[in-house]
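Good morning,

Attaching, inline, the backbone tokens for the sequence recovery test we're adding to the shared suite. The designed sequence is right after.
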């Protein structure tokens, strides 16, 4: 049963990565074409940060105690991603920006 859980989590992580990469490339293509990408930038930041943190959280869960040992790669990634979500603007800030731009305000 453990293998099935890990396979399912790996599939979810790979899907989120694919979606985040696609969103980012789409926003970059629009930027290269000279179009404004404020809404897309907010969306990318929100989706990428939330997805990366969720994946790291699942990695900690899968690794158990070893995932929380200071100095382990999983623990380091978890801390870095948590910090990234706060320092670059919380998810609520990103959502407010998306909402304002989507409503035309």
């Amino acid at each position: 049963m453990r293998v099935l859980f890990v396979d399912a989590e790996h599939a979810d992580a790979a899907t989120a990565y694919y979606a985040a990469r696609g969103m980012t490339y789409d926003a970059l293509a629009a930027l290269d074409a000279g179009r404004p990408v404020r809404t897309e930038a907010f969306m990318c930041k929100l989706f990428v940060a939330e997805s990366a943190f969720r994946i790291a959280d699942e990695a900690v869960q899968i690794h158990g105690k070893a995932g929380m040992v200071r100095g382990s790669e999983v623990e380091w990634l978890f801390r870095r991603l948590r910090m990234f979500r706060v320092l670059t603007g919380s998810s609520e800030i990103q959502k407010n920006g998306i909402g304002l731009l989507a409503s035309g305000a």
